[in-house]
Amino acid sequence: MSLSDGGLPGEERSRGRAGSGPCRARLLCMRKRVLERNGALILISLLAVGLGWSLLAEAKARRSHRRSAPAATAAADCKVDRDCALVVDDCCPCSQGGKQRSVPKKGKDAYEKARKKRCAGTMCTEMMSEDPSCSQVPFCGAGICELGAAP
């Protein structure tokens, strides 16, 4: 029997017309198994793509949240240099390989509270940072707290 006859290679017809008898049943069983295997592969593939997509979306959301929180705090108004304060930027201070930034004094407590929550499990290195921000001082420039060279 050949594939053009509706069967599989090596199969023989037992009796009667084409497509009847045990050959027809065997063919249907094999097709059913192939569809079941392909269906399972398609389902697994869709689950993997869905999981990957959700992880990617979550990572993007975390990244945009980290960028927007400090920017919102840093954009607050100041009038004089005394209105600005130094805080640890991200998780590690300058004494542990990190850097610092300038924020308005009125938003310092909220920034520190959020930073401590965000960095709860972070470990820092025991080395002095060489980041330029570690030797700068806060000042108010055009209503925004910034860092600059010490006078």
Describe this structure in words.
The protein is α+β, with helices and mostly antiparallel strands and 151 residues long. It has two helices and four strands, in the order αββαββ. The strands form two sheets. A two-stranded antiparallel ribbon has the order 1-2. It has a two-stranded antiparallel sheet with strand order 3-4. The longest helix is centred in the N-terminal third of the chain and has 54 residues.
Summarize the structure.
By secondary structure, this protein is an alpha+beta fold. It has two helices and four strands. The strands form two sheets. The protein has a two-stranded antiparallel sheet with strand order 1-2.
Straight-line distance between termini: 95 Å
SS field, number of helical segments: 2
The count of β-strands is: 4
Number of domains: 2
Question: From the structure provided, what is the oligomeric state, counting identical versus distinct chains?
Answer: single chain
The helicity comes to 40-55%
Percent of residues in β-strands: 15-25%
User: What string gives the helices and strands in order?
Assistant: HEEHEE
**Which shape, going by the Cα principal axes?**
rod-shaped
Q: pLDDT under 50 segments (min length 5)?
A: 71-76
Structural class based on helices, strands and sheet pairing: alpha+beta
Largest sheet: 2 strands, antiparallel
Mean pLDDT: 77
Strand order of the largest sheet: 1-2
Q: What gyration radius follows from the Cα positions, in whole Å?
A: 33 Å
